Amino acid sequence: MSIQVDTTNWTKGKNYPTWMNEISLSMISKGYLLPDEDVFDAFKRVSKAAARRLKRKDLQPFFYEAMVKKLVMFSFTCTFKFRYRTWNAYFMLWN
Q1: Beta bridge partners of 12
Q2: Which of 14, 26, 47, 79 is the right S-S partner for 63, CB 3.0 to 4.6 Å?
Q3: Which residues share a beta bridge with 92?
Q4: How far apart are CA 65 and CA 50, in angstroms?
Q5: Greatest distance between any 2 Cα atoms in the chain
Q6: Shortest CA distance to 72 belongs to which of 89, 54, 95, 93?
Q7: Looking at the chain, which runs of residues are DSSP E strands?
Q8: Domain residue spans in the chain?
Q9: Are 78 and 42 contacting, i.e. CB atoms less than 8 angstroms apart?
Q10: How far is CA 53 from CA 24, 58, 66, in A?
Q11: How far apart are CA 88 and CA 38, in angstroms?
Q12: What is the pLDDT of residues 62-81, one digit of tens each?
C-alpha cells in the first residue's frame, strides 16, 4: 500500500523547494512522504535520522541545509528505509 500525498494546494518555496519541478514533486508525493508531511518535513526527518545514525546530532542542520539547497539529496531508497527504521543511509551527490 502506497501513501499518496495531495500536493494541489502546495506553494513553491513554502511546502517544497523552489528548485523542484512538477515531475520531482509528483514523484516524491507518491509514496515517499508521510501523511501530512511536506518536502521540508521529509528533509528534516531524513537529516535527523542520518545525524542520529552517525551519532552526530550536531550535523542535522548541515544535512538539512544541504538538502534544501540541493547540494546533497537523499535517494528515495533512503526515505523508505528511514521511514521503516532500517537506518541505512544512501546519499546521492548532485553535480
Answers
A1: 16
A2: 47
A3: 73
A4: 13
A5: 37
A6: 93
A7: 72-74, 91-93
A8: 64-95
A9: no
A10: 27, 12, 17
A11: 22
A12: 989 988 888 876 665 555 44
pLDDT at 77: 53
What secondary structure letter does DSSP report for 84? T
Q: Hey, how many other C-beta atoms are within 10 angstroms of the C-beta on 81?
A: 18
Length of the chain: 95
User: Which residues make Cβ contacts (< 8 Å) with residue 77, sequence separation at least 6?
Assistant: 88, 90
Q: Please state the pTM of the whole predicted model.
A: 0.73
Are residues 75 and 92 in contact, defined by beta-carbon separation less than 8 angstroms? yes
Q: What is the C-alpha separation between 24 and 82, in angstroms, rounded?
A: 20
**Backbone dihedral angles phi then psi of residue 57, each to the nearest 5 degrees:** -60, -20
Tens digits of residue pLDDT in 8-63:
899 999 999 998 888 888 888 887 888 889 999 989 998 898 889 889 999 999 98
Query: What is the reported pLDDT for 75?
Result: 62
Name the residue type at position 2: S
